[in-house]
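Hi L.,

You mentioned the student needs an example of a multi-chain input paired with its predicted structure. This one should do, with 1684 residues in total across all chains.
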Amino acid sequence: METIFTTERVRPLLVQVREFVQNELIPLEDGFSHNNLSAIIPILDQKREQVKAAGLWGLHLSNEEGGHGLTLCEFGQISEALAHAPFFGHYVFGCQAPDIGNTELLHKFASEELKERYLKPLMAGEIRSCFSMTEPDFAGSNPTRMATLAVREGDDYVINGRKWFTSSADGAAFAVVMAVTNPDAAPHLRASMIIVPTDTPGFKIERNIPVFGEAGEGWFSHAEVTYTDCRVPVSNVIAGEGLGFRLAQERLGPGRVHHCMRWIGNAEKAFDLMCKRAASREIEDGVMLGEKQFIQDFISESRAEIDACRLYVLNTAHMIDTVGVSNVRDAVSAIKFYVANAFLRVLDRAIQVHGALGVTDDTVLSAMYRHERGARIWDGADEVHKQNLASSILKKYGLDIKQKAKELRQFRQMMAAESSL
Amino acid sequence: METIFTTERVRPLLVQVREFVQNELIPLEDGFSHNNLSAIIPILDQKREQVKAAGLWGLHLSNEEGGHGLTLCEFGQISEALAHAPFFGHYVFGCQAPDIGNTELLHKFASEELKERYLKPLMAGEIRSCFSMTEPDFAGSNPTRMATLAVREGDDYVINGRKWFTSSADGAAFAVVMAVTNPDAAPHLRASMIIVPTDTPGFKIERNIPVFGEAGEGWFSHAEVTYTDCRVPVSNVIAGEGLGFRLAQERLGPGRVHHCMRWIGNAEKAFDLMCKRAASREIEDGVMLGEKQFIQDFISESRAEIDACRLYVLNTAHMIDTVGVSNVRDAVSAIKFYVANAFLRVLDRAIQVHGALGVTDDTVLSAMYRHERGARIWDGADEVHKQNLASSILKKYGLDIKQKAKELRQFRQMMAAESSL
Amino acid sequence: METIFTTERVRPLLVQVREFVQNELIPLEDGFSHNNLSAIIPILDQKREQVKAAGLWGLHLSNEEGGHGLTLCEFGQISEALAHAPFFGHYVFGCQAPDIGNTELLHKFASEELKERYLKPLMAGEIRSCFSMTEPDFAGSNPTRMATLAVREGDDYVINGRKWFTSSADGAAFAVVMAVTNPDAAPHLRASMIIVPTDTPGFKIERNIPVFGEAGEGWFSHAEVTYTDCRVPVSNVIAGEGLGFRLAQERLGPGRVHHCMRWIGNAEKAFDLMCKRAASREIEDGVMLGEKQFIQDFISESRAEIDACRLYVLNTAHMIDTVGVSNVRDAVSAIKFYVANAFLRVLDRAIQVHGALGVTDDTVLSAMYRHERGARIWDGADEVHKQNLASSILKKYGLDIKQKAKELRQFRQMMAAESSL
Amino acid sequence: METIFTTERVRPLLVQVREFVQNELIPLEDGFSHNNLSAIIPILDQKREQVKAAGLWGLHLSNEEGGHGLTLCEFGQISEALAHAPFFGHYVFGCQAPDIGNTELLHKFASEELKERYLKPLMAGEIRSCFSMTEPDFAGSNPTRMATLAVREGDDYVINGRKWFTSSADGAAFAVVMAVTNPDAAPHLRASMIIVPTDTPGFKIERNIPVFGEAGEGWFSHAEVTYTDCRVPVSNVIAGEGLGFRLAQERLGPGRVHHCMRWIGNAEKAFDLMCKRAASREIEDGVMLGEKQFIQDFISESRAEIDACRLYVLNTAHMIDTVGVSNVRDAVSAIKFYVANAFLRVLDRAIQVHGALGVTDDTVLSAMYRHERGARIWDGADEVHKQNLASSILKKYGLDIKQKAKELRQFRQMMAAESSL
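Structure written out for the whole complex:
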């Protein structure tokens, strides 16, 4: 169903992108076993040249960066179209995570020098990057608890710490690292984001973490990284010292729309495979799977869920575009958990409809599951978003849960202080 | 969250309507026990005068009918606002079911004579009407199976049959009756819609059906009606003989949007009560219900579901307005079951949050449940819509389920014929 | 499916009970409109005589009380069989709530004098009783918060307070009232259970609370009751002063098994009606509702849920019988929310399968819903049981949540004290 | 919670088994990355010797086979205990699938010669076996549709066909192959089970199928196998020609109990990890994950689901032991889908509670998911079991769905025949 959000500007681009995805990328799935995703990177790199030749590279970029200046809401629709070729689409069009997020971040907040050195080749697809925030020893949903330290020595920071789920670190040219620079400041002003080139002595990829049976490599990987006396110039800080948490917030709004629209495109992919299977798999002589109401239930529920999610995300993106992210924080929280869950339900149904084939790597379904089950965890687990959303809602009803939680933390600290006497 | 669908035309109307609902209707809930809804009708009738005085009567009507000529999408937003006062809002503003549906039907399809006689006083709120389609002996979801007959005798139809769930028949001035006029035609061309004044000899309300413990009366009732040799002029047929099924289809598209937007407004009402309770109910000394994550879960899931549903319905209404209902049949099916289920989940959570109070008639919640549990049943049960939606989707994938079902029916008739030899 | 729990002693009783229910009680449903349950009491009272004549009265009673000395596990199976005739079975066999709970309580804990005066006629079905614990102003799930006071004056208590959901107070001979007798004791030792004859001056039924559209009367009602200077002798206290909370706990273990087994029997009733409808309702020529997989899904899920629930409850009852309720508190919590939810799901499916008929009072389904939606609320809401169960489990893993909550309460009291200075 | 099913005979065995699992197997999980399961086989083979030394080998075997002659219900409890060490337990104790199923099959139905040659070394753990039934081109849930042919030539069968999901074929000594021997017989009498040694010319493992990112090897694998002119003696048929389908049925009853009890043990494992994490993971200073009600909800729901499932399966096993599998087919269908779904829900919650760690292979959780998502598919998908169960139930209500389906098949064949004229 076309939505009200399809502008005249984006409509022809959508046609071009869908055509490219359909003709150039989806055929790559044939016979490809998705248990070793990185095997396909060389072919995807060739496709990138075709995309550039067609003028479709970097559709997320602003006009001055050589893009089309699409709004978040418009690019969201492009992103959905790319996600019809899961794993392939965004990479080939140069707007894959985590690079797209780093691009936006550097574009908005980095110094000219950093832009010249890091942003330019990143936008051109000449290098890749990674984002190093979460630590194994601390719950990722609380960005104010962090052990990685960047201690200032002269004009340098000396960084020590351990990060994990630094996605795509393997082969990246630089990392954006979140580290505590001001340990004595208020919690939300302690950390900074600092660029660390991956050839900096002391930067070490300990391992690509095996995730659901695949450690992966290159872009398709999530590294555990240690920083041991990593020395970088102070000018590598993005925006300024102590602003790490604020930058993280800035990154998250559009980032969640990106994730959500990719999931919606992925969900459409799963839906398409589910319907193809339902229409073509004979289960008894002359009876197709799709004639069974169990399957019809899967299909109808999925259709409704996907369409409702799309409108929810696009309206949220539209509001970000028009009234600013700070006015729609509730919606940004809500779409994150709502879409992630809907997507995983659709995916699960598609797997079920494929029977034994569904659990193999012969279709893209199980790979999607393996790589996206985390959708309900990263960028804030479902539970964290729901708690935040409800707290925000109830505040309007006169119940300030965060204030009470704060008082409680103070009490706990007081108790801890007493008991340590 | 404001949506993209709020036009400049509807925005000031929304403000007025919300104000009226808030100031005039919601206070009526105080101390009102919802186990006898009809007790409040006299008061609502007074409020109607205020609405008329404020120029807000009949917001669903076209300009030439004295309305504001709102699109379906715009009126949907009004309808949601009215539904913040469940049971009261639509009635007071003169756009309550089933009259709104009959108004639309007569406006589009009735002869000038019928309009003059029935539509005009209906629009003015001087009379009420009912719609008599479902029969106790046949599954309502299959409108081609029907036992009520209208036999032509001279210039009259003589109608015999039994209907039920003829909502608001008690006190109505006329019924729109679905009856078989052409039993030998193709199934979809057998029935007609005929106006039967309720003072016609042979029209009898057998009972107001007790629904979830309340038989109700007047507008708040669902009658079982018998038609015994009811004689009405042939000119009482709407649009023409044999068009009953097509009219039913016409009625359903906008009708479903109306239902869905009312449910969304009702859901917002339940949500509001849930949050008020969560913010104000102390469960331990100094601890409010809303501090509990179980409750936060209810609130957050509900917020996301309602907002996604609203956008889904409004986009569907917008498509009906712009490309016509026949191009969005899938969406019309999808919103029906999707929104009904979401609404009932929200309502159930609100009841749970209220504890013992939630099952009483001291709040509007249990009355909403009693009167709206049928949302998943009437106008096509969930299961029927899902089957239709999936069939329509799979047809695009080359599997024609309806065609196979048709062959199967033919086989069954053949078998039945043989076995009866 | 027969279970391992069916002993030789209970098997013949089950046969007799099922036969009686089938032949004498289920026929009463025919043509009975369930929107006025109390209309049937006179007929049920006649059936009671037949039960007594057949030696089946009071199957919950011990041998010395004239019963059969069944274990809780054995009686549970009887209770399920009685619940195949919802609302009728338990009453006719003299083991209806709240009398069964009061019987158990008095039997175990009351003085000989109280037994003679209250228990004897109660067991004989000559009088009815009620249980008055919950207060509208306090969350029922926290029995230590209570405003009703019983002040000792000489040999009397003078009781003042407001209770609600005092089920079956209308027509009862006495109430067991929970009231604070020792306000300065530790929270769990403040309240007592006291017998108050309903003809005591100051005992007033303010109203039978309308619940889901039915205020009811007599046994089928839930009263709001005020106690104004109600004076009863101190000897009316059960077991002893300050033991109210402990008695409540004692009452709850078997009480939950009773509830659960009744719900399972009710669920079987709903299941039976669902299957009958599925097998007999034609939805197209020659096609029965039960041929649709949507309906098959409802039936199969329900079958599995009911059977799993029964085994869970009976095993819990068996453990209560053999190792004592204090050793299976976790299971007692778990069955409460698990069975209540499963039952309500089965019931909802049965309603859905009945279509429009399902929401009427022409079947017992909607009455069951109206009277049992509270199953997830009373005797501890789902959320309370889940919190308690998880806390108990996590304590074995070294996390003492209750202790932390206690510290937190102290902190809050401290803060409150400070802020009031 | 101990259940009523724990006999005096099995109680001491359970103690021994649990101790071994706890002390010898669970420590192997430490630091083991579950993305390459076969790496641990050499260590597990050492543990097997300890098991044999302790007299705990082959606890599923009858007394005459050197086992303990446990009932199915008793062994089910052992199986659950073994599954606390997922992947390790059953293998180390010599009762892993598919060998346990083949053992039962050969024990009951094979000739003495086949027993001597294949069963004996299989029971001793000297060889492994596989079971070759499902074909990629046919829905596995319909065992009467099959393309693999075994054509008799003299005293040999010559077998041709393609199978997949022939689990553990890699390294197996022989396969039990389902093949059509009597193509003209009634559908259920066409196929036979035949032993094919894997060194038979023409037996070829085409690949170990990558499943959720892991192709595996050895015991941990699912092969796609081709049979090309595989020649085996006619005496390799088990039980007799045409009995393949009946043997498959025989295999399935106990097989489903085995699966279910393994899943329940696996679910307990996931539950245990979930609780450990909840009790030890600090999410804010001084606040543990388990203090959050979202997590408490997960824990409580899981506790109830697992305990209800266990009782349901054990009661079913008990009925198989006492009244025979043919009298409890409905329950055997029901536990299959009911337990598989409950297990996967528990597992999903455990993953969620672990956050990012949960999707890695650093815990056993994601490996369990990858290897057991198929639980809802193999041995009959959920949908097939539900359809069968509902059909069986509704037959008692007078609706014979299978008969109608049969008539429909005949019609379709008739139509197909006509259209091919």
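You could point out the following to them. The two ends of chain A are 66 Å apart (CA to CA). Chain A touches chain C at residues 292-294, 297, 407-408, 411, 415 (CB under 8 Å).

Best wishes,
N.
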